[in-house]
Amino acid sequence: MTGRGRLEAIWIKRVKRGPMDPVERATLVEGQGILGNADQGGWRQVTVVEREVFERLRDDLTPAADPAMRRANLLVSGVPLAESRGRRLHVGGCTLELRGETRPCERMDQALPGLRQALSPEGAGGAFGKVLEGGEIRVGDEVWLESVPAAEEEEGAA
After folding, report:
1. How far apart are the first and last CA of the chain?
2. What are phi and psi of 122, to 5 degrees?
3. CATH number at residue 57
4. Overall number of domains in the chain
5. Rounded-to-integer distance, Cα 64 and Cα 86, Å
6. pTM greater than 0.85
7. In the predicted model, is pLDDT for residue 150 greater than 70?
8. Is 102:74 a contact under the CB 8 Å cutoff?
9. Looking at the DSSP assignment, which residues form a beta bridge with residue 26?
10. To the nearest whole number, what is the mean pLDDT of the chain?
11. For residue 18, what are the contacts with CB-CB under 8 A and spacing of at least 6?
């Protein structure tokens, strides 16, 4: 495992292209995503961004850079998401399989001019994943990223 961090914020998007509503707790549903979120099932069930990325953006771009502008579901600190594809992210008692990096779209520039480009370097846009083990998560929960990609771990066990 790598270092441990913290779940800093949770947002639920109740309708496609709708606002990101901040909540203190949410329920992750295995194979589906976040209960009540517009995006259910499929490849991209939950999206995650790093607090540290937005701290850098505030220094480099503008103090107005806010993590909610990224339109992700979870904000974590202390856990680097670059090159995390295939790894498992544990949030409290729940587990996500990270499937790739989230690429910023044109909606980022609608929120803040220059945000799309600022989020474009490797890993800065966050990651997305699938819920492997569901349950309730709360702001303040411990988060950690397994150090070995899940596929390699399973191959080594065989």
Report:
1. 20
2. -40, 120
3. 2.40.33.20
4. 1
5. 33
6. no
7. no
8. no
9. 137
10. 81
11. 38
pLDDT single digits (tens) 68-78: 766 789 999 99
Q: What share of the chain is helix, strand, coil (3-state, %, to 5)?
A: 20, 35, 45
Task: For residue range 31-77, list pLDDT tens digits in order.
Answer: 999 999 988 888 889 999 989 887 877 777 666 666 676 678 999 99
Domain that holds residue 34: 4-157
Is the per-residue pLDDT at 9 higher than 90? yes
Burial of 31-66, coded b for 16+ CB within 10 Å and e otherwise, reads: ebbbeebebeeeeebbbbbbbbbbeebeeebeeebe
Smallest CA-to-CA distance from 33 within 73, 70, 68 is with 73
Sorted by sequence, the CB contacts under 8 Å of residue 57 that are 6+ apart come out as 65, 115, 118, 119
Diameter over CA atoms, the chain: 50
Determine how β-strand 142-145 pairs with β-strand 88-91.
antiparallel
